[in-house]
Amino acid sequence: MTIHEDVAVGVAAPLPPVADLFREFLGSVHDVTGRVVAQILAGEHAYAESALPDGALDRVVAVNIEALLRSMSGAPDDLRPARDAGRLKAEHGIPLASLLHAYRLAGLALWDEVVTGAASRHRSEELLRASSDVWGIIDRFSNAAADAYRDVVDERDRRSQHSRSLMLVALLDADTPLREAAGILRTLGLTEQGRYLVVSAELDATGDDPLPDVEARLRHRGIRSTWSTWGAEHVGVVACRNDLEVAGAADLVEAAATGRVGISGCIPTVAHIHRGLREARVALECVAPATAGAHAYGAAPVDVLLVAHPEQAAEMRSTVLGALADSPDRGHLLDTLEAWFRADGSTAQAARMLHCHRNTVGYRLGRIEDLTGRSVARPSQAAELYAALRAVRLVAGGAVPGPA
Questions:
Q1: For residue 270, what is the DSSP state?
Q2: 82-101 pLDDT, tens per residue?
Q3: Residue 9 above 50 pLDDT?
Q4: In which band, very low, low, confident or very high, does the pLDDT at 125 lie, cut at 50, 70 and 90?
Q5: Strands in 169-280 per DSSP E
Q6: CA dist list (Å): 378 to 151, 256, 369, 386, 388
Q7: pLDDT at residue 1 above 90?
Q8: CA distance 372 to 361
Q9: Cα–Cα distance, 66 to 382 (Å, whole number)
Q10: Whose CA is closest to 368, among 352, 386, 380?
């Protein structure tokens, strides 16, 4: 909205038949204000309990009633008083519903005054025909006030989120003194005596929340948490009272995941909470790229070693897979190897997973041995093949390219 639109958005002379009735009451603003303020204070405890400066409510009501009367008298809308009222009440914590109710009360008070005046002049029918225009003006003013109110609240939320983000950074910084970290926990509403999980969730290009409503879901279980977004990462600290809550929180985070999510191990004290972010980030890398799911640090030690040392993992992958990497059927071979490990070495079960004959699985395992020099029948060689397969799935640049 431009600065000019903020001052005058109404159409001039919206009520020519009865504009004079409203114009007559411009000299009675003080009396109407007194009645409206009394009704507001009697019916809205939020005003009576607020820290509004002395006389502020009277002044706000008076300037808004005068602005309403001028619009009802045919002048262009001047929405500045409405916006000022919205900002003032948001800044002093008065609920939005109370703000809108105050406009309703002012509208009713003005309407009652004009109805009495119209009846004495036998112009009630004219006023009735103009009623929709009158309440339309009141709606425009109340909407302008509500918009300004929401602007203040949104800005306050942004400042609060920025502040919480900075506190979270400090909490997870190893250089933050223990006493300061404990104070940050209190400020964030988290317990100082408990166990903690740190969560790192990857944001995709759309910026969609990879853990929708996770804070509310945890709160529903009586578990407190705090969250912030840093670049392409959504980070949270979850405070639990016991091991049972730790397990429940991890399960809930996993169920909520719509992207790649890493969960730290259980952090026993605030003194060690800084290590949780590193663990969570490593755990996130244990979820294959372009997939969705959550991984808990320590749940797969081989994966942790691979993603923590990507250069060595890539070297090992190349050494172990050897000629398989250049084979035209490498995709089928790797999928078969993965199914065989998932089936705990059962050829029949792997065949069911792959929707093929068990002889096909046996043939492909033989091909893997020919190309790599390693057999799944030998435990040490099977371990090397498993590690190389996980490196393909997890480590950046690990996917074996080309047609299957």
A1: G
A2: 999 999 988 888 888 888 88
A3: no
A4: confident
A5: 195-202, 224-230, 233-240, 260-263
A6: 67, 40, 11, 12, 15
A7: no
A8: 16
A9: 85
A10: 386
Give the total residue count for the chain.
404
Distances (CA, A) of 191 to 182, 218, 238: 9, 14, 10
Give the pLDDT band of residue 107 (cuts 50, 70, 90): confident
Which pLDDT belongs to residue 105? 86
Closest CA to 372 of 319, 336, 332: 319
Cα–Cα distance, 225 to 219 (Å, whole number): 8
Q: Which tokens in the block code for residue 151? A: 């602007």
**Summary mean pLDDT of the chain:** 86
Could you tell me which residues come within 8 angstroms of residue 82 by beta carbon, excluding any fewer than 6 positions away? 64, 67, 141, 142, 144, 145, 148
Q: Distance (Å, rounded) from C-alpha 304 to C-alpha 313?
A: 11
Q: CA nearest 22: which of 87, 115, 91?
A: 115
Cα dihedral 309, 310, 313, 315, rounded to 10, equals -120
Flag whether pLDDT at 15 surpasses 80: no
- Bridge partners of 230, per DSSP, are 233
CA distance 191 to 238: 10
pTM, entire model = 0.63
200 φ, ψ to 5°? -125, 125
Mean pLDDT of 264-286: 93
Contact present, 263 and 214 (Cβ < 8 Å): no
Q: Which residues pair with 261 in a beta bridge?
A: 201, 294
Report CA-CA distances (Å) from 78 to 47, 70, 101, 313.
Answer: 25, 9, 20, 68
And the tokens for 66?
A: 């005068």
Distance CA 57, CA 340 (A): 75
Q: How large is the average pLDDT for residues 340-364?
A: 94
Q: Which of 67, 62, 73, 61 is nearest to 23 (CA)?
A: 73
